[in-house]
Design brief:
heterodimer; A: 314 residues; mainly alpha; two-stranded antiparallel sheet; 14 helices; 4 strands; globular; B: 308 residues; ABC transporter involved in vitamin B12 uptake, BtuC; two-stranded antiparallel ribbon; 12 helices; Branched-chain amino acid transport system permease protein (chain A)
Chain lengths: 314, 308
């Protein structure tokens, strides 16, 4: 098979497999996989910035939360329909990503990490500050009526699974398309050697800003979908932990691979799910995974597969 | 209480915060200065200091003074040894790559925090202060017959809080003497200036790194021991302390001890005073945005060589 055929077979096969699983999985895992697919969209968004462009952000929770609250607040307070409020969530995340990108991209490396962390912390505190509307940590529970999209009730498990799969497939094929475009190649060039990309005449700042906006919007789409599909919008999704999770998922699955974020999210979700039976201190697993990954497999699962067997993996 | 005495009380409380913060931030700044490592797990070393203070104090028994003194010695030593071990097993093997060490120390943060949750539990526990006499403070008021001293109700500080301020000043002075007047301090400063050159001159850079990481963590743990008779020891107490020390270190200029101390006094005092006027959440938002904007508009000036 040619490279292009193999890529489409692999990623199309994954989506087809997930579609078949919709009818096979028992109820508990059915719900879990729907959740994993939405979170994987968040991880894919993070991967665009971190994996492909080399921008290590510690504040992506603010984009996830911007999508979630951009969707949830109009839906809850104004009674906006599911479709329109989803679009509002996307717009909120894209706007925030543009503003943060313009400021934070003036810095690089460690300073970039701290600046994104601080902006995200400020966003989280802002949600708490406006507790009258956001209800802070307690959060908002969306009514069933505000979760109906084009006549389909998204609180129904099967509808939820299909919607999650749809969003996941769009994000997956968008990423696949993007990284094969000249734009995607430029992003990788910036990751590998920023000075050289600049020397070749690329406007590095503009490409990095585009990457942040795309990444933030995709993270926001995941946040909005999460709120819509699971009916809950809460400040805990804006906490530092939710900035660390996508980093962890992407590192585990393989930074700079299209399929890696999904693998990482799935693996970590079930690792924490299973360990929850043993201990309540489930973040211990996340901590251990982070340390072991940085030590032994900085390329993650996807990176190891690419190195050993499949050099063509996009 | 009138406004004047109230402000004095807020500044005294602020001075206690500043003292503890200066100790912690000095450790963070030392580690960054010499090793160029941003230690995200620094707050957890502070938390471990506080938790170990409770463990040691309750294990020793024999009165609050003995328990507290034992904790003051044991907790920083243990935490310092733990940090040095983490440096040798993890950070050294990452070649101190700035981004990978941040990810690894985030991992370390969760490991320490969750192990504490499992071993010590989710409760907040106090340690009895070794001495706690309440000292009333006078205030001057212009009455009919010129200035008059009087003792407003509620304006007081405990002897223990004064001890915390004094201890922090003493330790920081000791640290300064250690860095500028001793041979080990000289070796550390040489490593800070140019690690490779120092190695070429026969300085055991790896051991210096392990020592510096341990020393930085021990300072945080010491701050934790000092604070635990005032606040209680809790497994989540590291997060906010870490945020404040980041702010201090960035405002003060990384790697500069004097800048760190000045910034700690500034932040600690204003934290006490600002939270009198604004809601604490708004004060924190302003503080975090301030740090972000300092880094955005003066990245090279304040982050030094890290902003590559």
């Amino acid at each position: 098979m040619t490279g292009r055929g193999r890529e489409i077979a692999l990623h199309g096969g994954l989506v087809a497999l997930l579609a078949v699983l919709a009818f096979v999985l028992p109820a508990y895992h059915h719900g879990n996989v729907a959740r994993v697919m939405v979170l994987a969209v968040y991880a894919m968004g993070y991967n665009l910035a971190f994996g492909y462009t080399g921008l290590l952000s510690l504040g992506h929770a603010m984009f996830f939360a911007a999508g979630m609250y951009g969707m949830g607040l109009p839906a809850y307070h104004l009674g906006l329909g599911a479709g329109l409020s989803f679009v509002a969530g996307l717009a909120a995340a894209a706007g925030l990503a543009l503003a943060v990108g313009v400021l934070a991209l003036r810095t690089a490396g460690v300073a970039f990490m701290i600046v994104t962390l601080m902006f995200s912390q400020a966003a989280y505190l802002t949600i708490l500050l406006f507790g009258t509307y956001t209800r802070g940590d307690e959060g908002l529970v969306l009514t069933r009526a505000s979760r109906v999209l084009a006549g389909v009730d998204l609180s129904d498990p099967m509808a939820r699974y299909v919607a999650a799969l749809g969003l996941f497939a769009v994000a997956l094929f968008f990423t696949l398309w993007l990284v094969r475009q000249p734009e995607g190649r430029v992003l990788v060039a910036i990751r590998e050697n920023e000075e050289r990309a600049e020397l070749l005449g690329y406007n590095v700042f503009r490409h990095k800003l585009a990457a942040i906006v795309l990444s933030g919007t995709m993270s926001g789409a995941a946040g909005a979908a999460y709120g819509l599909l699971f009916g809950y919008v809460g400040a805990s999704f804006a906490e530092v932990q939710y900035s660390i999770f996508p980093l962890l998922w992407v590192l585990l699955g393989g930074a700079g691979t299209v399929i890696g974020p999904f693998l990482g999210t799935l693996f970590m979700f079930y690792l924490i799910d299973l360990s929850a039976d043993i201990t309540s201190a489930y973040m211990l697993i996340a901590g251990l995974a982070l340390v072991l990954l940085t030590l032994f497999a900085p390329q993650g699962l996807g990176g190891e597969i690419r190195r050993r067997w499949a050099g063509w993996l996009p | 209480m009138d406004f004047g005495p109230y402000l004095l009380l807020a500044s005294l409380e602020g001075a206690v915060t500043a003292a503890v913060l200066a100790l912690m931030a000095a450790g963070l700044s030392l580690v960054f200065g010499v090793m160029r490592v941003v230690n995200v797990a620094h707050g957890e070393f502070y938390m471990l200091g506080a938790v170990l203070a409770w463990v040691v104090a309750s294990a020793v028994g024999g009165g609050p003074v003995l328990g507290f003194v034992a904790a003051l010695v044991v907790a920083p030593l243990l935490v310092g040894a733990l940090a040095a071990a983490a440096d040798v097993t993890v950070l050294k093997r990452l070649d101190y790559d700035p981004e990978r060490t941040i990810v690894a120390t985030i991992g370390l943060l969760y490991i320490l925090q969750q192990l504490t949750l499992m071993g010590y539990g989710p409760e907040a526990r106090p340690v009895a202060p070794p001495f706690n006499a309440r000292l009333a403070l006078p205030w001057v008021e212009w009455g009919d017959a010129g200035p008059q001293l009087y003792w407003p109700w509620g304006l007081s500080i405990t002897s223990y809080k004064l001890f915390v301020i004094g201890a922090a000043v003493a330790v920081l002075a000791g640290l300064w003497l250690f860095m500028t007047r001793t041979r080990v301090g000289l070796v550390m400063r040489a490593t800070q200036l140019d690690g490779e050159m120092a190695q070429a001159f026969g300085i055991p850079v790896e051991r210096v790194y392990a020592g510096v990481f341990g020393l930085g963590a021990a300072l945080a743990a010491l701050a934790g021991v000092l604070i635990v008779p005032i606040q209680q020891a809790h497994y989540l107490m590291g997060g906010e302390a870490l945020l404040l020390s980041f702010i201090v270190v960035i405002i003060g200029g990384l790697g500069s001890l004097a800048g760190t101390v000045i910034a700690a006094v500034l932040i600690g005092m204003s934290d006490g005073i600002i939270s009198v006027f604004f809601s604490p959440t708004l004060a924190k938002i302003i503080a975090t945005l301030l740090v972000a904007f300092v880094l955005v508009f003066r990245p090279r000036g304040l982050m030094g060589k890290a902003a590559r």
